[in-house]
Each structure stands twice: as C-alpha cells, then as structure tokens.
Inverse folding.
C-alpha cells in the first residue's frame, strides 16, 4: 500500500475512535442524569420535561439505560464467566451453520433458476410465495418439523440468509453482459465451460452482496430465535443458550447492565462476521479491488 | 518471425465466406424493416476485406448473420462451401465494445479459447507468449482489464481472438471510440498481426482512412437496406506506413474514389430525409472544394 493509503487509513481510524468516544461520553452523561438533573441549575430542564409529560427524575430513555461505566464493569465480570463465551460460541455456531447451509443450497439453486427457464418456471412461484414469510414466523413450524431445538434454530437462521442469497444470485447471473456469452461461444466454449468460467465468476460480486445482506439477517434471526425458543436449553441457566438467550436471561434476572453487554456483544459479533465475509469477498474478486 | 509462427500453427486453414442474395427483414406483417436486401459478396481467402458504409446502414446486422447469431430471411451464407448455422469457433467476432472477461487477467483472457476447448499444448503456450509480445502486453499479463488503457484492452482482445486461429476473423468497428493517436497505433498493431498470419479477415468500419490503410479489398456498402455498392482493390504494397495515407498518390486516388461513391449514397439518403447523411454531404462538399 502507498504512503497516501496508510495516511488515509489512519485518519479513518482516528475518526472512528473519536466517533466512538463521543458516543460513549454522551451516553455516560445521559445515564448519569439521575444525579445531575436534581441540581438547581437544571430547574428549567425538569420543567420542560414535566411540560411534555415525562417524570423529571432523569433524561427520558437514555437515563433509564445503565451507564457505559457500569456496563463495562458488568462486562469485566462476565468476561471471566465461561458461560458468556459459551453464548458467543453457540450463536456463532448457529449463524455459521445456517449461513453456510444457505450458501451451499442457495447459490446452486439461484444459478439453476437463472440459467434454466424450466427450473425458473417451476420453482420461482413457490419461492416468491415463501419469501415474504418472515423467518421468525417459521419458529413454531420449525420446532414441530425438526427433532432437536438446535436444528430448528439452525433452520430459521438458514431461511434468513437463503432468500436474499437466491434473489441476488438470480439477478447477478441475469445481468451478465450478453457479449461475454457471445465471445465465449465463438471461441468454442462448451455450456459447462460457460457456466464455470463466465456465469460463476460473473455472478460472484452479486453473491458477495447477497451474502453480506444475508449475514446481517442471520444475526437478527438467530438472536430472536434464541429468545423465543429459550435458547436450546439442555444446559439450562445462562449456559449454552447463545447471545440472544443471554440477553433474555439477563433481562429476566433484572441485570440491565448485562442486557447491554449482550447487545453490544451481538453488535461486535455481527461486525466481525461481516468483516470476515468482506475479506473473503475481496479475496475472491480480485478484479474488483484493482481499479 | 513469420516463419516461427507458421510452424506454430500450420494446421489451421484460412476460410472463404460467400454471401449470396442474402436479405434480412426485421419485424412482422406491415411493421417490417428490410435491413439487408439481396446482398452478395465474397470474403476472399487470406485477404483483409474491409467493409465501409454509412452509419446505420445495416453493417452490424450483416455481422450478426455472418457470425451465426442471427439467420437471414432469405439467401445463403457459406464458409468453405458449408452453410453457416449458428456461432462456431471457425468464425470469430471481435465486437465494437470490449468483451474481455473482467474477472480474468490479460493472460487468462488470451488463453481462454485454447483452455475452453482443452487444447493447451506447448504450441499454444508459445503462441500466447508470441502474441503477448506482438501486441506489446508482455508486462501486463497479470493485470485485469480494468487496469488496462482502452488501447491495451483492444490489443488484448486482438490477441485473444488471434490465438484461436479462426478460419475467418470478423471485426466489427473494433477501434471505434479510441482517440486518433491510439487508433493509428492500433492500425499498425493490427496490420502487423494480419501480415504475420495472413488469415482471412473481415473488418467493418465507418472510417475511410482506417479502411484504406488496412484493406486488400474494400467493399463499399449502400444505404439501408444494405447492398454492396462497389468493390475496390487496394493495391498499395505492404507493409504500409501511416505516412502513405497522406503521401502515397495511389492511396489518395482510391480514397477520393471511395468518398465519391459514399457521397452518392449519402445524397440518396439525404434526399430521403436522413439527417446523418446531411453531415456527410456537407463535409464532402467542403473537402472537394478545397482540393
């Protein structure tokens, strides 16, 4: 990378740090409003809050949330708890198994629908009827379908990514320029060769976009599924339930700091998995990064 | 050089295409448009035939017919006596816009044809090296198309087509859209490639200088519906120099002859109300008055 590139990177990094610091500071101030709002200097604020119907004991919403310092304390304690890491592992495992299954089934299925008019005609109507059904609406049905709770959660997660991947693959494969096909055919390409060396790489950018979106949906879905299903349970308690169950359990147990810890953990987990996916995507599509 | 490559690809023959009484009508019932009308000509073996005609006269339609992407409404097209049905590697088309596969490096693009047909041998590898050098891209073999300049992309495409040794190579305004300097450079690269292999080439253009510089035979087309209006033998010796275009009397003589035929065609369509023809008529009258 050039020196200019490094400079740009570091300035981006600095902006990121500043942004996070400002966010945390405002959050801390807001959370501590229980204390400072009682001071005489904030008489006007209390009157204003009263006027719009809030109880003037702290700032609305943010005052009810644990302060970042408290969250950090709770986090430091939780970090030493193996069940917290077990939650990470469980959620990651579920996301990855559902996501990878969605890729393994969704990419060939999408490609098939894109290249074969018959396959498209037969499958697409059903696909389009099933697609608008939110994955969470599948939770009860999948509990009935699948023998273990783990499988039902994985299935719901799979659905979250599947539709997005398929739609993107179909769109991507269809938007490949017809000139590439003509050029390949006039150079004596077989159908098989056109599939592997034109359609597949030509669809790869769309596959990457589809999987990035799908990954986001997968995290949404897994957390909700864990909350609803009680998080796979045999282990019981806070152990082994995944991050969604961790949050729910903390809420039930009245530990609001831990709720926030769980939320931020999911944010970090989602970010990490998106980054991994982006790195993979960049690695697999070198022609897009070298402009 | 020439001897070296002749041993590299001695097995391939040059083809001859005969177009006889071909018509192409688009549309149906009363909404028809006749684009090609009773058109006959021969693309002679081991010659560079250039087709020139006013823009929108149906040249691209003719190319689609020759390539086999489309079938004529009536008449026949034969290659070495065999009727043309569908695209095949014996007729290779180079398109107006670049059709290099963006996901392959220059080298992989050039090697596409041999690999697609499973014909990778010591000879093809050697030929790939030879062509890379011939089009001056040996240092760009690992670059992707987006990293190449417009002229380099065209050259890479020439090499990608040439390596397949088609019996007839068809080029549809391949240097359109390049700036004047780059275009002249392309003429030199291309004519060197042609002179080295002496295969049957069919080159379509709207640029009279390009036509005169490259052609062995020049087909001048009428306005739509297209027919051959005149055939000129360009007997300027090879290898040709860019300076010939200005200094060589024979070149200029042919050019004036060709222009006057094109002028007649333009006058005809001008009288039928074509605006594109108006520009040509004006330009021509200025040029003639100056000389």
């Amino acid at each position: 990378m050039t020196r200019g590139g490094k400079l740009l990177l570091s300035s981006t990094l600095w902006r990121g740090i500043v942004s996070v610091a400002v966010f945390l500071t405002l959050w801390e101030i807001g959370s501590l409003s229980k204390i400072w709002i009682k001071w005489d200097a904030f008489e006007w604020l209390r009157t204003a809050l009263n006027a719009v119907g809030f109880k003037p004991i702290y700032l609305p919403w943010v005052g009810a949330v644990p302060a970042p310092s408290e969250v950090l304390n709770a986090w430091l304690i939780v970090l030493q708890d193996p069940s917290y890491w077990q939650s990470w592992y469980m959620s990651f495992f579920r996301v990855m198994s559902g996501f990878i299954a969605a890729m393994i089934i969704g990419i060939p299925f999408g490609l098939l629908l894109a290249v074969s008019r018959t396959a498209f005609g037969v499958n697409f109507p059903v696909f389009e009827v099933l697609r608008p059904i939110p994955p969470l609406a599948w939770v009860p049905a999948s509990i009935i379908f699948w023998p273990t709770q783990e499988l039902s959660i994985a299935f719901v997660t799979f659905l979250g990514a599947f539709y997005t991947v398929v739609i993107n693959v179909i769109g991507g494969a269809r938007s490949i320029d017809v000139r590439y096909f003509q050029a390949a055919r006039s150079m004596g390409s077989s159908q098989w060769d056109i599939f592997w060396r034109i359609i597949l790489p030509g669809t790869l950018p769309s596959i990457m976009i589809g999987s990035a979106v799908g990954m986001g949906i997968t995290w949404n879905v897994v957390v909700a599924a864990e909350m609803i299903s009680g998080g796979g349970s045999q282990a019981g308690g806070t152990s082994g339930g995944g991050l969604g169950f961790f949050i729910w359990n903390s809420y039930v147990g009245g530990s609001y700091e831990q709720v926030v810890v769980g939320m931020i953990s999911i944010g970090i987990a989602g970010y990490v998995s998106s980054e991994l996916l982006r790195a993979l995507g960049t690695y697999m599509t070198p022609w897009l990064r070298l402009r | 050089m020439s001897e070296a490559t002749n041993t590299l690809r001695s097995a391939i023959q040059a083809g001859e295409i005969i177009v006889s009484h071909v018509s192409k009508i688009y549309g149906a019932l009363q909404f028809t448009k006749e684009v090609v009308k009773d058109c006959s000509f021969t693309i002679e073996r081991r010659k560079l035939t250039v087709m020139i005609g006013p823009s929108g006269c149906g040249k691209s339609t003719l190319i689609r017919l020759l390539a086999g992407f489309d079938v004529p409404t009536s008449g026949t097209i034969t290659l070495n006596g065999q009727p043309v049905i569908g695209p095949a590697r014996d007729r290779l088309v180079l398109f107006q816009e670049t059709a290099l596969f963006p996901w392959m490096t220059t080298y992989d693009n050039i090697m596409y044809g041999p690999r697609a047909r499973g014909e990778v041998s010591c000879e093809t590898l050697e030929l790939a090296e030879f062509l890379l050098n011939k089009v001056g891209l040996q240092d760009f073999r690992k670059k992707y198309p987006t990293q190449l300049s417009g002229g380099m992309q065209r050259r890479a495409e020439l090499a990608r087509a040439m390596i397949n040794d088609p019996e007839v190579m068809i080029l549809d305004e391949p240097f359109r859209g390049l700036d004047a300097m780059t275009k002249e450079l392309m003429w030199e690269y291309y004519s060197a490639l042609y002179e080295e292999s002496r295969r049957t080439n069919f080159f379509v253009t709207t640029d009279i200088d390009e036509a005169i510089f490259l052609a062995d035979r020049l087909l001048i087309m009428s306005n739509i519906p297209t027919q051959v209006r005149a055939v000129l033998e360009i007997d300027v010796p090879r290898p040709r120099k860019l300076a010939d275009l200005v200094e060589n009397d024979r070149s200029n003589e042919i050019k004036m002859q060709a222009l006057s035929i094109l002028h007649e065609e333009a006058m005809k369509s001008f009288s039928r109300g074509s605006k594109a023809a108006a520009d040509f008529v004006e330009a021509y009258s200025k040029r003639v008055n100056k000389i």
Observations:
- The interface with chain A takes residues 67, 69, 87-89, 91-93, 95, 97, 99, 101-104, 112-113, 116-117, 143-147, 160-161, 164 of chain B (CB under 8 Å).
